Amino acid sequence: MKCHIPSANVKVLAKAIQTLSRIGDELYIQPHADGIYFRTVDAQRSAFATFDFHRSFFLHYSSSSNQASSSQSQAQPEICKVAMKSCLSVFRTQNINVEMCKLFFSNNGRMLVFQLVCRHSICKTHHVPVIQTETLQANYNKSTARNKLLTQSKLLIDALQNFSNNQDEITISVAASKMILRNFTETGEFMKNTVRTEFALESTEFDSLQIGVDATVTFNLKELRALLSFAEVCSLPVSGHFDNTPGRPIIFCVNNQPAFDAEIVLATMSSNDTSTFSQSQSTISQRSVNESALRKRPSTSIDPSQSTQKRPTPATPSTPQQPVLSQPPITPQIHTEIEEIQQLHWEDDEEEDSTDSMNTTQTDAVVLAYDSDGESGK
Amino acid sequence: MPVQVSTVVDAEESQYQLVFRMDNVKSIYHLLKSINFQPRATFFATDSGLKVSVESAKCCQANAFIQTEIFQEYTLQPTDESVSFSLDLNVLLECLDIFGDANSNSSPTALMLRYQGYGHPIKLLLEEEDVVTECSIRTLEVEELANFDFTSDDVINKIILKSEPLKEIFNAIEPSTDIVEFNLYSNEPIVKLRTVGYMGEVEIDISKDSDMIELFQCESDSTSKYKYCHFKKALKALAISQKVSIRTDDGGLLCMQFMIKNDCGHICFIEFHCLPVVDDD
After folding, report:
1. Would an 8 Å CB–CB cutoff place B201 in contact with chain A?
2. Are A123 and B205 a contacting pair at CB < 8 A?
3. Going from the N-terminus, what domains does chain B have, and what CATH number goes with each?
4. How far is A215 from A269, CA to CA, in rounded Å?
5. pLDDT band of A309, cuts 50, 70, 90
6. Residue A273's pLDDT band (boundaries 50, 70, 90)?
7. Comparing C-alpha atoms, which of B275, B248, B244 is closest to residue B157?
8. CB contact set of B15 (below 8 Å; sequence gap of 6+)
9. Which of A72, A90, B121, B197 has the most neighbouring CB atoms within 10 Å?
10. Do residues B245 and B257 make contact, with C-beta atoms less than 8 angstroms apart?
11. What is the ipTM of this complex?
12. Is residue A248 part of a domain?
């Protein structure tokens, strides 16, 4: 494999590696006849990311099989696993003006070489040791997903900004031309000081939102944030594919045909219970009636006004993700977990009063609901 | 010791051995800060100016040269012995930045420094907008500094570079790097910087036609290795410099000279010496 990457695309590659580094610690590089895959999987094997750079991404590309010049008996393509940190350090300084990046294997495939040709006639050569010749393949199919969304990355980034940075998981619900983002806590029970945030997005906000089936899925937020920041830098739209089948992964894609495309596959917990959604939906519609001007702003939902709230609890709270990935020899497995439903009650007059006053004063603010007293569950 | 007492009395009676005054303390503050890799600094006052030396483990040494032009007033009493003192550089820097605006563009702080002689503290008067602070810093015994005998006869290779691209190169060196290998060749590539760390191996080549090279003299190919932890001590000085002259002698001793232009347009120099790592084989 030998390829030359032009200056503008070096930044894309650098950002791609940075995105991958936020997901996994090892980078799998897989050249194929028509480009290179850069892939990673996280330590729990609950998130998989792949960047596929096509031939047109490169100035010049030749996969190893074309180079039959040397007496290499390597019939198989040069696939490798390298430490993410080593690759990250190649692009550590962005401000060096890179004119071209060459990528090839040396030392009989034991070293991966990044050669950066920079301004001022400087040439930086990074020799990254290959850890293993191993490949990574995830088994998933996004085409069967019944719910599809397509949006500019900004919309989701803005929406996610309303959630705290240490929020690990997020729940997405879709029904009736609307998508609701909600923060998720592992215990299923909201503690006294837990902030609950809900954020509704109308279908008109999206470039497209196809809802084939009402669904509620919960997945890790970290990886989505990583992909969104990549999409933002490249100013590309993001698409999402998911279903209501329990255990099916949610897939987010960034497409820039014909140069490259990126996908992340995230394990989900799904809940068949849509009553949660319909309840909160009613509150949301009240508040986002005249929102055409305020469309980008968060809608609100005030939970204490609802006397009952159903909430999924994972069967194994500590590890909500299921393995969606496997090494090629192993047959893919997707576990299913059916969540228990737990009921929570809010009976707090004082809280209702305060939120009512909020209603009147600031309809467009995020109103956060608290399980404010030990009275819940009475 | 009676002899010392009498010299102290003499000094008090006469004048201070060294007095200097400057309108803007910033011009030396940043200079001194860039060599602050060891707390103990030694000041040598001569007729041409001040030399401030900082040394680490006798392996690397930085000297800042502050010419008299930078001072608005500079008085050195003619004495037989050289006027020198050591002090804690951190304390001095803290005093110089006592108004806390060294990094902002607010009104300048004026400085007057007086030194009576051996055994006396240095006295600083700092003034900003009619607020005067008086500081007194105890001086330490002058430490013996390694003499990096870098005579121009032994210089085999010399290169003058623009600082800006070099900063980017040096800053991109992985912090976990242990050894930096510095090669100068008479043929392409003329400069090769090689680092080996946990993350792999990095080679940085600079070719002859690079616009960052202002002067290049190479008598014979040279290769020498330096500890990155020593090498990186020069990075702060590099960061504020405009040009760098890098010289190596036949023993592998590295001498980097940084040309630094301060706000008032005066030029100061920082010299950095670093001993090579000797291969076992």
Report:
1. yes
2. yes
3. 2-137 (3.70.10.10), 155-274 (3.70.10.10)
4. 11
5. very low
6. very low
7. B248
8. B75, B77
9. A90
10. yes
11. 0.76
12. no
Higher pLDDT, B265 or A212: A212
> What is the model's pLDDT at position A96?
60
Q: What is the distance between the alpha carbons of residues B13 and A160, in angstroms, rounded to a whole number? A: 74
Task: Return the residue in B159, B162, B181, B199 with the most chain A beta carbons within 10 A, the one to mutate for interface testing.
Answer: B199
Number of structural domains in chain A: 2
Which DSSP string corresponds to B208-270? TT-TTEEEEEESS-EEEEEEHHHHGGGHHHHHT-SEEEEEEETT--EEEEEEEE-TTS-EEEE
Residue A313 lies in a domain: yes
Task: Search chain A and give the residue with CA nearest B200.
Answer: A128
Tell me the chain B residues in contact with residue A124 when contact means C-beta distances shorter than 8 Å.
169, 172, 202-205
Judged by CB atoms within 8 Å, which residues 156-185 of B form the interface with A?
A: 165, 168-169, 171-172, 174
Closest CA to A343 of A113, A230, A162, A189: A189
Which of A263-267, A362-366, B10-14 tops mean pLDDT?
A263-267
Asked whether B99 and B109 are in contact (CB, 8 A), the reply is yes
Within an 8 Å CB–CB cutoff, is residue B54 touching chain A? no
Q: What's the longest Cα–Cα distance across chain A?
A: 81
Which residues of chain B make contact with A94, given a CB cutoff of 8 A?
none
CB B180 within 8 A of CB B228: yes
Chain A residue closest in CA terms to B198: A86
* Angle (nearest 5°) at CA A44 between A41 and A46: 65
pLDDT given at position B76: 83
Same domain, A39 and A167: no
Going by the DSSP 8-state scheme, the letter that residue A106 receives in this structure is E
Question: Distance between CA atoms of A369 and A197, rounded to whole angstroms?
Answer: 7
Q: Residue B5: its pLDDT value, please?
A: 39
Determine, for residues B205 and A122 on separate chains, whether the beta-carbon distance falls below 8 Å: yes
Report A:114-133 residues touching B (Cβ under 8 A).
119-129
Q: Using CB atoms, which residue from A119, A124, A129 is nearest to B202?
A: A124
How confident is the model over A233-248, as pLDDT tens digits? 889 999 999 888 877 8
Q: Which of A120, A123, A127, A131 to mutate to test the interface with B (most CBs of B within 10 A)?
A: A120
Beta strands (DSSP E) in chain B are 18-22, 40-46, 49-56, 60-67, 73-76, 83-88, 110-115, 122-128, 131-137, 155-162, 179-184, 191-197, 200-206, 213-218, 222-227, 243-249, 254-261, 267-274
Q: Does residue A213 lie in a domain region? A: yes
- Determine which of A126, A127, A128, A130 to mutate to test the interface with B (most B C-beta atoms within 10 Å): A126
Size of interface A-B (CB pairs under 8 A): 62
Contact A122 B210 (CB under 8 A): yes
- Does any CB of chain B come closer than 8 Å to the CB of residue A86? yes
Above 50 in pLDDT, residue A155?
A: yes
* pLDDT reading at A203 higher than 70: yes
Report the distance separating Cα B20 and Cα B71, nearest Å: 7
Residue range(s) defining the domain that contains residue A191: 147-241+268-361
Residue A78: pLDDT over 50? yes
pTM: 0.71
Which chain A residues are within 8 Å of B206, Cβ to Cβ?
Answer: 120-123
CB burial readout B238-271, b (16+ within 10 A) else e: bebbebbbbbbbeebbbbbbbebebeeeeebbbb
